[in-house]
Amino acid sequence: MAVLPILVAPHPVLKEKCAPVDAVTPELAQLMDDMLETMYDAPGIGLAAPQVGVSKQILVVDVARADEEPRPIKMANPEITWESEELGTYEEGCLSFPEQYADVQRPARVTVRYLDENNEQQEIEADGLLATCVQHEMDHLEGIVFVDHLSTLKRNMILRKLKKLQKLSKQKKKAA
Ligand code: NI
User: Fold this and answer.
1) Which of 62, 68, 126, 141 is 20 to 30 Å apart from 110, CA to CA?
2) Residue 64, pLDDT score
3) Could you confirm whether 27 is annotated as catalytic?
4) pLDDT of residue 12
């Protein structure tokens, strides 16, 4: 397994619509494992393929707490087959937006159909943090990032802060 570099916004690949996969080949199953390792290393609770520069409909999530057994889920071609009318709000972050957080409202419960790492069709019902996390990662596959759910004012504020942070880290690298 390998830890892959994570793309930080703004990056053109993060705005692309990802292509569905024909099948989960051994190479794609390996990519899923590498994405999981990258996500745990960050650390984060979800990661979508475009965040590591691969424009394919693949994502991984694990919302288990640090004191729980890991519960990794690997998905290809995920599709929402049902969503609740009830909405839930979580403060979301994203590995492509380091240190930026904002409240986002989404359906509180969803049913998701997908291909697993063995190329078998699965369907899960998700609620709470898992429902939010899967929807956040599925957005990435459409070229949508969490700040796209915010007002223009809030979105621009986060993008400006991100730019400032990146400038600072570049200066630090130069100084080191
Ligand atoms: Ni994200």
Assistant:
1) 68
2) 96
3) no
4) 97
Measured CA to CA, the distance from residue 70 to residue 88 in angstroms comes to: 24
Check residue 176 and give its pLDDT.
Answer: 74
Residues within 5 Å of ion ligand 1, judged at the Cβ atom: 94
Residue 168: exposure state from Cβ atoms within 10 A (0-12, 13-18, ≥19): exposed
Phi/psi of residue 171, nearest 5 degrees: -65, -40
Rounded to the nearest whole angstrom, what is the distance from the C-alpha of residue 109 to the centroid of ligand 1? 19
Exposed / middle / buried, residue 36 (Cβ in 10 Å: 0-12, 13-18, 19+): buried
pLDDT (0 to 100) of residue 52: 98
H helix or E strand, kind and range, residue 21: none
**Which fold would CATH assign to domain 12-175?**
Peptide Deformylase (3.90.45)
pLDDT, block means (10 residues), the chain with 176 residues:
93 97 98 98 97 98 95 98 98 96 98 98 98 98 98 96 90 82
DSSP 58-110: EEEE----TTS----EEEEEEEEEEE-SSEEEEEE--TTSTT--EEEEEESEE
